[in-house]
Design brief:
By secondary structure, the protein is mainly β. Helix content is about 0%, strand content about 50%. It contains no helices and 11 strands. The chain starts with a strand and ends with a strand.
Length: about 120
């Protein structure tokens, strides 16, 4: 069983910054590792991913969010800057073999952007 563990979600003011972390097991270290987010009543949407050093970022967060990986710590991170109220969501970590496989999900960490 693959377990992904997210952390770092909290309440933050608009314009603020936050870094989310996701710990993953060694067995998926070579997978496509990424972040998705979901709000109540909506589908989970792609945020950013990293695959063998290549990062991909959704247009909605490009220039504000950055995904990175620390192989020594078996973790990926999502650095979020200039947060907006519409960034409020539960953020999920994902590990998948290929873009077409669903892969594994973490339990999610909640981010609330509000004054």
């Amino acid at each position: 069983q693959v377990q992904l563990v997210e952390s770092g979600g909290t309440l933050v003011q608009p314009g603020g910054s936050l870094t989310l972390s996701c710990a993953f097991p060694e067995s998926v270290s070579w997978y496509i590792l990424g972040w998705y987010r979901q709000t109540s009543g909506n589908q989970r949407e792609f945020v950013a991913s990293i695959n063998r050093g290549t990062t991909t970022t959704a247009d909605s967060v490009k220039g504000r969010f950055t995904v990175s990986k620390d192989s020594a710590q078996n973790s990926i991170y999502l650095q979020m800057n200039n947060l907006l109220p519409e960034d409020t969501a539960t953020y999920y970590c994902n590990a998948r073999r290929t873009p077409r496989t669903p892969g594994y999900w973490g339990q999610g960490t909640q981010v609330v952007v509000s004054s």
